[in-house]
Design brief:
Layout (H helix, E strand, L loop, with lengths): L3 E5 L9 H14 L5 E4 L8 E5 L2 E3 L2 E2 L2 H10 L4 H6 L8 E6 L3 H4 L6 H9 L5 E4 L2 H11 L6 E3 L23 E7 L8 H8 L4 E7 L11 E3 L4 H9 L3 E4 L8 H8 L4 E3 L5 H5 L3 E3 L4 H10 L1 H10 L6 H19 L1
Length: 332
């Protein structure tokens, strides 16, 4: 059988730009070792399947529903190409990867991204939700999902994010806590990061974009950086702090776990699905939260090492391509 060609309708960037971009970069890297599949980025090339990523075709750029409809009906992005092919329809299957909904994440009921994601479902031959939480959010709006759907958590490139050279906390030194965000959205929990930095016995390090309107307290700040440098920052620390609210399936949790960091996390959204076995929920009593981490640190590290492969793009990617294979077989 010829290789199945999958067009990713998303232009990735090497710059830090959120979880979707990081995940798709990792998926592209994973695909280079596959014999039966080829991921392509040229929408003018011949391909068998199209992967749509949430509401976007690039960081900050929304998908055109008109173009998706034309792919669905004719197999081409515009009618001119369809006419050039003498009205011969190209059979293209569409797999849709869905995130959470901003009406739940950011309390924005009229968000354009939500409208696009919900509209895309009717064009999809299969839908991949990033978490149970993601699926449940869409069900609250649409009821039953009308097409075949799957839940596949994200994964990271462990050639970059790994435990090579990692020194684990010796329980004598100050606990070094790491957190990161490319977004300055207040719901990322910057106030909680500051509160944590004011506690004796810890050092809090942050990489990313810090909002100008929030005093960073005793948090040590560094700007956004490429993934290879970011992974080293993870490994310099002992614990990852993730206070962001109502995330569907945060990629940074997988980055932290792959670098050997237990997680203190906000108990909302899809985050507990990922982090609950490898860390603790944080509460208003942050000292009590830190005590729980310290008292269970060894067991968390043991669990992370045991389940290391589950955080990888190799694990998540294999499941994505199993969906692609099934959708392609159903086509023929």
């Amino acid at each position: 059988m010829n290789r199945i060609r999958v067009f990713i309708n998303y232009k990735t960037t090497d710059m830090p730009w959120g979880g979707s971009n990081s995940f798709l970069c990792a998926l592209k890297e994973f695909s280079t070792n596959l014999k039966d599949f080829e991921l392509i980025s040229d929408k003018h090339a011949d391909f068998d399947l199209m992967l749509l990523n949430t509401a976007y075709t690039a960081p900050g750029r929304y998908i055109s529903l008109k173009q998706v409809r034309r792919y669905h009906e004719h197999g081409y992005s515009n009618l001119f190409k369809y006419i050039l092919k003498r009205f011969k329809k190209r059979q293209i299957k569409i797999v849709l990867r869905l995130d959470g909904l901003r009406r739940f994440y950011a309390e924005m009921p009229e968000a354009e991204g939500d409208r696009i994601q919900l509209s895309l479902i009717r064009f999809a031959d299969a839908v991949i939700f990033q978490s149970d939480e993601s699926l449940n959010q869409f069900k609250k709006i649409t009821g039953d999902i009308p097409v075949q759907h799957y839940i596949i958590h994200n994964g990271v490139n462990q050639k970059i994010f790994n435990m090579e050279g990692k020194r684990f906390w010796n329980k004598k030194d100050k606990l070094k806590i790491f957190t990161t965000s490319w977004s300055t959205n207040p719901r990322k929990g910057f106030g909680d990061i500051v509160r944590l930095s004011l506690i004796d016995g810890v050092t809090v390090n942050f990489v990313g974009n810090w909002p100008k309107e929030i005093n960073h307290g005793k948090v040590y700040l560094k700007p956004s950086m490429p993934q290879n440098l970011l992974s080293e920052e993870y490994k310099k620390n002992d614990v990852f702090f993730f206070p962001s609210r109502n995330e569907a399936c945060p990629n940074v949790i997988y980055e932290a776990l792959s670098c050997g960091l237990p997680v203190i996390y906000h108990p909302s959204g899809g985050t507990p699905e990922i982090a609950s076995r490898y860390g603790v929920e944080f509460s208003d009593d942050l000292i009590e939260t830190l005590d729980k981490v310290a008292n269970n640190y060894d067991s968390f590290i043991e669990g992370i090492k045991r389940d290391y492969f589950l955080f990888s793009i190799d694990y998540a990617g294999k499941r994505y391509f199993e969906v692609f294979q099934k959708v392609f077989i159903d086509r023929i």
